[in-house]
Amino acid sequence: MQAFLSYTRIDDEFFGGAITSLRRAIELGVQVITGDKKFKIFQDIDGIELGQKWRERLDEALSGARLLIPIITPLFFSSDACRDELKKFIRHEKDLGRNDLILPIYFVTTPSLENPDQEDTNDPLAQEIRTLALEINSRQRRDWRPNADLPINNPDVRREVLSLSEEIARAVQRASDLSARLDQQLRQGAEIIKSEEADTLSAAPKLVLWVDDRPENNIAERAAMQKYNIGFVLATSTAQAKNRIRAGASFDAIISDMSRPPDPRAGYTLLKAVRDSGSRVPYFIYAGSRAPEHQKEALARGAQGTTNIASELIDMVLRSFALRTVEPHEIAQAQERHVSVEAIRILFLSANPTGTVSLKLEEEAREIETKIRASAFRDSLELITRWAVRPDDLLQSLNQYKPHIVHFSGHGSPTEEIILLDIQGVAKPVSKEALVSLFRTLKDNIRVVLLNACYSRPQAEAITSEIDCSIGMSRAIGDYAAIVFAAAFYRAIGFGRSVREAFDQGKTALLLEGIPEDRTPALLTRSSITPESIHLIHPR
């Protein structure tokens, strides 16, 4: 045994044994490269009990390991075992006078890694996590996130396994250039591994109500949880949260901050209302403290926990889901019932395929969210984001959320197509005929479609055969111009303006910023519709 795999079994189980499959593929790769059939990566598949037995086994495995391969996820930093393994191997490195024996694999977006300085340095656990996160950040890590959902026999995954195996082999001993032989062996080995894997169903989807007057502060946490098949309904006030609950949505958990103006203990106010209604839904406080006295108070009031550490929150929520399961259709049903709350749902779809010009899509979504939150009727608008969209995601998202506004941000082409991703992450053109068919089949609540992409006017014009209003770009549009226009448009909608007024405000925002692209956006409507008459929000 020359390497030690540090990971959480929950992650491996959720991803259908993907971590175990990756470990086996790497073992095979290194064996082929080095010719050493005895090369093994230690993996605690069955689980070792904590305590003396675990410590003895850990020390034995670490003492015989040349490398540590930590699989980085939010649960890694919340795991006592994983943190202990990492700390022990850091000391092992120092004893050997080395700093190149830890090879992290970044498997799921991890808030503690992305924003280590946000951890509470006054809390011992938070301080430890921050220290370890900075240690990981100081090393060259392999970003496996694009591959986490792909099968082990995928050609792109095989290439990545090849590269990773060569890197590990170099760290173990001198490696020969056996790339061609390795690819052939990996192709055969991947098929064997795939055939041995049991057919597993993805974990049943869960729906969480997240209550926070500043939802932009939790983008990284929600992104991490979405990888575990968790959907979210957002509320920015206690009143809005109560409306979401009364609407009949079956939430699997509630996450709340503590203070929301004007109530400094709004988290407990909502908790009391939930418990008084007879609901025992798991409830978590995500606020500025996890001091013992605050944890004790939260438990006494009926919450399942309180923390200010992202990885600990994710761990608590996932563990609570072990208590019950839901049918896969429940999220869609809950979202459908959510219509009665009268929130206008904006479905933000984005795509930036490999090999295309990089776009600031996250910044666009953030600016839209900020402008909505600053509008008079912010509680009447809900922004739902979906990233790296593939063609089938269009059907899934429109079925699931039944939006009132569909917003696409990404690339368009002069050949009257929008550009999504295929399963390999590269460009997948979608024709205007396909878009018309999509909105003919799934128009439901949709009143407006905004195609924030270059050369998208022909597609927008075609869509008006099915949808009341659409906006497209008559030529190429700059990244910053697209952000400014979209943010101003949705702010105006949030103030109760008509679609025409919102469109005009978007163009005015471009002029105020000195961006000479105000003639690029085009507003188009069905023959019998005037955009001045369409108000998505009706102020009382």
Key descriptive features of the protein:
single chain, 540 residues, alpha/beta, Rossmann fold, 3 domains, six-stranded mixed β-sheet, five-stranded parallel β-sheet
Q: Return the CATH topology of the largest domain.
A: Rossmann fold
Strand order of the largest sheet: 12-11-13-17-18-19
Name the shape in a single word: globular
Taking all Cα atoms into account, the compactness measure Rg is 25 Å
List the helices and strands and how they pair.
Blueprint: E1 3-6, H1 9-14, H2 18-34, E2 41-42, H3 52-63, E3 67-72, H4 74-78, H5 80-96, E4 105-106, H6 111-114, H7 124-137, E5 142-143, H8 155-172, H9 179-196, E6 206-211, H10 219-226, E7 230-235, H11 238-246, E8 253-256, H12 266-276, E9 283-286, H13 292-300, E10 305-307, H14 310-320, H15 330-337, E11 344-350, H16 361-373, E12 381-386, H17 391-401, E13 405-409, E14 411-413, E15 417-421, E16 427-431, H18 432-441, E17 448-452, H19 457-463, E18 469-473, H20 479-494, H21 499-512, E19 521-525
Parallel strand pairs: 1-2, 1-3, 3-4, 4-5, 6-7, 6-8, 8-9, 9-10, 11-12, 11-13, 13-17, 17-18
Antiparallel strand pairs: 14-15, 15-16, 18-19
Helix pairs in contact: 2-8, 2-9, 8-9, 16-20, 18-19, 20-21
Explain what this protein looks like in three dimensions.
This protein is α/β, with parallel strands linked by helices. It folds into three domains: 3-196, Rossmann fold (3-Layer(aba) Sandwich); 206-330, Response regulator (Rossmann fold); 342-533, Rossmann fold (3-Layer(aba) Sandwich). Helix content is 44%, strand content 16%. It has helices at residues 9-14, 18-34, 52-63, 74-78, 80-96, 111-114, 124-137, 155-172, 179-196, 219-226, 238-246, 266-276, 292-300, 310-320, 330-337, 361-373, 391-401, 432-441, 457-463, 479-494, 499-512; strands at residues 3-6, 41-42, 67-72, 105-106, 142-143, 206-211, 230-235, 253-256, 283-286, 305-307, 344-350, 381-386, 405-409, 411-413, 417-421, 427-431, 448-452, 469-473, 521-525. The protein has a six-stranded mixed beta sheet with strand order 12-11-13-17-18-19, sandwiched between helices. A five-stranded parallel beta sheet has the order 2-1-3-4-5, sandwiched between helices. A five-stranded parallel beta sheet has the order 7-6-8-9-10, with helices on both faces. A hairpin with a 5-residue loop joins strand 15 (417-421) and strand 16 (427-431). The N and C termini lie far apart (70 Å). The model is unreliable at 46-52, 174-186, 192-202 and 323-341 (pLDDT under 50).
